[in-house]
Amino acid sequence: MKKTTSIKARITIWYMAIMLVLISVVLISVGALSYRLYAVNMENELKLQVTQVAEKVKTRMNDDAYFSVENNEEFKNVTIYHSNGQYAAGQYNYNLAEIEFADEMLRREIVDGKEYLVYDVFKGLEPENPKPAPNKSKPEEQDNENETTENPKPPPKKPDSTSENPKPGYWIRGVESVAYPKIFEHSVLISLLIIIPFVLVLTALGGYYITKKAFLPVNNIIHTADDIYSENDIKKRIPINPNAHEDELHKLSLTLNRMLDKIEDLIAQEKQFTSDASHELRTPISVILAQGEYLLDISENEKQRELAQDIVTKAKQAAKLISRLLTLARIDSNSLKLRKEKVDLHLIAGIVAQNMKEAAEKKHIDIIVHADGEPMIYADESLITSALSNLVSNAIKYGNESGYVLISVSEVGSNVEITVKDNGKGIAGDQIEKIWTRFYRVDDVRNDEYGSCGLGLSMVKSIIELHGGSISVSSILGEGTEFKIILGK
């Protein structure tokens, strides 16, 4: 069986899928940007710390050679080394001490599987006894000075810790653990575990609420259609909010209501026509029946009697049809007044069996009446008798030769149950629901053998429902049929 999914559920799932993709894209973009900004900020911060420490280091060897930074929180990532690589001050890290120095070169180093950001600055020391400044009064010295200015010597090479005679000074090294990948990973994980489910739930609830409100007219249409079907009340209409937006569903509801108005008018016209036609036909049919019976009495030969009998038979069938049409028309228009009284269903079943005895004997069918106790109900005796007679008549018509018809009456709780069962031809499964339709007849008996007009079962159902009861049928083709009536006491 194909699984069905409501439109609301599909739209809500679509909302959630789009939101999931959108949130993922936003988080990845924001995470990548944060990753880059964090990296740049960390690099700049490390350079700044190293530069600030380098500026505070003394520049003369006869002074206190370095600025102590052990207890300065601002420079917690900075270490000072002698030019020969020996530790001097700051935060000492054994794992990073062996990394070669590189002046003003920001780089990344991997030590013991961990990545670090490293930045070094060399701070050279001036000589302890610098040469005195040249005497500008001497012309020769002045000339030498001019020559030096015009042809300056190249600057000294940057010291290297690996050289044998390193230049006096200090290396200021800044080291920062590259931890932002883990921070990014944790932030993404937290977002996935907290933010995304929360947003998806919020999206699902919001989407479902919006679609539910948007599809409210559809639900009203469904409920109204179900009510019309279950209650057989064509007067019901789809409720429409006068303040609602005039969208497609609003227009659909208005259109369906107009269609139901038209259908109700057509049904009312049909019922009125049926009622009027039945009334108009009663008199001529009665005259035809009377004349046919008279001709049957005065017939002088067999041929005349056959013709007169045909007239009487057809007139009786027409009278029966008209009587049922009138009954149905009155039930439909709620003009049929019930004359309820206390009725003994066992007694009625016996009367019906007696009335149908002659028709049953022609097919050698036994009519069996069974009753438990004295089942009594308040009902219209004439209508209940008519309904039960119709069921028994059908059981005889479509029963097998030398078969049986069982009429059973019993009390079931606060209800009374009446069953009419036979071992006749039965009804095909695809036709069971159709037998209640007016003028419907099973295909294999669409002839005049039984004089069926297709109104009997429809009338029975209307009578039972008029009394607040229900009727059902179960049948097996070739084995028989059972009708079950349930009426309140």
Task: Outline the structure in words.
The strands form 3 sheets. The protein has a 5-stranded antiparallel sheet, covered by helices on one side. The protein has helices spanning 7-56, 139-150, 180-214, 216-231, 248-297, 302-332, 345-355, 357-362, 381-397, 456-466, and strands at residues 78-82, 87-90, 107-111, 114-124, 169-177, 340-344, 366-371, 376-380, 404-412, 415-422, 470-476, 480-488. By secondary structure, it is an alpha+beta fold. Helix 6 runs parallel beside helix 10 (456-466) and helix 7 crosses helix 9 (381-397). The protein is built from 10 helices and 12 strands. Among the domains are: 250-330, Signal transduction histidine kinase, dimerisation/phosphotransfer (DHp) domain (Helix Hairpins), CATH 1.10.287; 338-488, 2-Layer Sandwich (Heat Shock Protein 90). A hairpin with a 3-residue loop joins strand 11 (470-476) and strand 12.
> CATH superfamily of the domain at 338-488, called what?
Histidine kinase-like ATPase, C-terminal domain
Topology pattern, helix = H, strand = E: HEEEEHEHHHHEHHEEHEEHEE
Q: Give the overall pLDDT as a whole number.
A: 79
Which sheet architecture does the biggest sheet show? 5 strands, antiparallel
